[in-house]
Design a protein that fits this description.
The chain has about 350 residues and is of the alpha/beta class. It contains 11 helices and 12 strands. About 40% of the residues lie in helices and about 20% in strands. Strands 2-1-3-12-11-4-5-10-8-9 form a 10-stranded mixed sheet, sandwiched between helices. It binds nicotinamide-adenine-dinucleotide (NAD).
Length: about 350
């Protein structure tokens, strides 16, 4: 990888178009070695010329860029959400970005709705399988519009897919530390194998097999419903969580609640050795889009996560430290208690980053 980092930026729809420019501004403030190229993929482009992903779009991203920063997709003017499916799920599936890494870190106790819970209590990660499960679109509708209508949504779990995300979780646990510098020690597999016995059985067997290779790491299991309860009762229980596509999607919105809401949550879609994609956990939030109220910190922390992935750890830590200062000094949007607009909050972080 060259010294300069080539980043494709795809703001997408709704608040993506507001928060991603703030993240871009902060990246340019932290380093002159980041080259950004913006693409207009999203609902506006789709409505203008019916393009979702231009021909060879994913090949071009993988060939010409070190990483991709994405906003969100989803626009009420496109009720089918076809563009979101083709761009976002297309990128995850066709670029084979199998590990959706969603760190859950509480920056400051003031952001957490739970009593007596501080940053040292919430520092875990959810590793979500990102290329299979029920999001692959397999299935169909039969006798649509009649009283006998049938809808089938298949849940695809391959040994290859399950094994590589579970192995990724054990490797993550081995190699990544907590924010306080201590080692990670536990991998918890979350499923619903009591009811979904075929898929759950595969996950259980593979988890046992792969886990037996990592003798220093403790293994745990929770059904997804129990995990939701425990996440709210005692987030200290969690270290590394690995789960399937749908459960990972759902539990990370709950986990975002522990961090201060969806406006604070970052994520990466990774395949080691390939061009990876980074996006805030939140969606396009149509009701608040265009109002300059969306919290840009999830997108800014996502940019920091991407820079760390590209080897720019010092720059990433600097951005995270300044977002924390913004939280402590109330230089935030209203969702986390401040009075700034999206642009003002982003500019405050960018300005402090460039001064430091
Ligand atoms: N990765 C993605 O692109 C992605 C993810 C989730 C949803 N979506 C799409 O986004 C659209 C809206 O979906 P939704 O409402 O379920 O989820 P959402 O994440 O857009 O919004 C959920 C709630 O969180 C709030 N919120 C989200 N981000 C925020 C931010 N940065 N600052 C302040 N508040 C924020 C919203 O106002 C809303 O109340 C749909 O079209 C959906 O398909 C896209």
């Amino acid at each position: 990888m060259s010294q300069r980092k080539r980043i494709a930026v795809i703001p997408g729809d709704g608040i993506g178009k507001e928060v991603i420019p703030q993240a871009a501004q902060v990246m340019q403030a932290v380093s002159a070695a980041v080259d950004l190229t913006t693409f207009d993929w999203g609902a506006d482009r789709y409505l203008a010329d019916k393009t979702t992903v231009p021909p060879d779009g994913f090949t071009m991203l993988a060939r010409d860029f070190d990483a991709i920063l994405v906003g969100a997709f989803g626009d009420p003017r496109v009720p089918s959400n076809i563009h979101a499916k083709e761009i976002l799920l297309g990128m995850r599936f066709q670029m084979d970005l199998y590990a959706n890494v969603r760190p859950v870190r509480l920056m400051d106790a003031s952001l957490c709705p739970l009593k007596g819970v501080g940053p040292k209590d919430v520092d875990f990660v959810v590793l979500r399988e990102n290329t299979e499960g029920v999001y692959g679109g397999l299935g169909g509708i039969f006798k649509q519009g009649t009283p006998d209508e049938i809808a089938i949504q298949e849940d695809v779990n391959t040994r290859k897919g399950v094994e590589r995300i579970i192995r990724y979780a054990f490797e993550y646990c081995t190699n990544q530390r907590k924010l306080d510098g201590s080692s990670r020690r536990r991998v918890l597999m979350c499923d619903k194998s009591n009811a979904m016995t075929h898929a759950g059985g595969l996950w259980q067997r593979v988890f046992k097999e792969v886990g037996s290779e990592y003798t220093k790491i403790e293994t745990q299991h929770m059904y997804v419903d129990a995990l939701c309860l425990q996440m709210v009762r005692d987030p200290r229980l969690f270290d590394v969580i690995v789960t399937n596509n749908m459960f990972g999607d759902i539990v990370t919105d709950l986990a975002a609640g522990l961090q201060g809401g969806l406006g604070m949550a970052a994520s990466g879609n990774l395949h080691p050795g390939k061009t990876s994609m980074f996006e805030p956990v939140h969606g396009s939030a149509p009701p608040i889009a265009g109002k300059d109220v969306a919290n840009p910190f999830g997108a800014i922390l996502t940019a920091a996560m991407m820079l760390a992935h590209l080897g720019m750890k010092a720059e990433a830590e600097k951005i995270e430290a300044i977002v924390l200062e913004a939280v402590r000094e109330d230089k935030t949007t209203a969702d986390i208690g401040g009075a700034l607009g999206t642009r003002e909050a982003g500019e405050w972080v960018a300005e402090r980053v460039s001064r430091r």
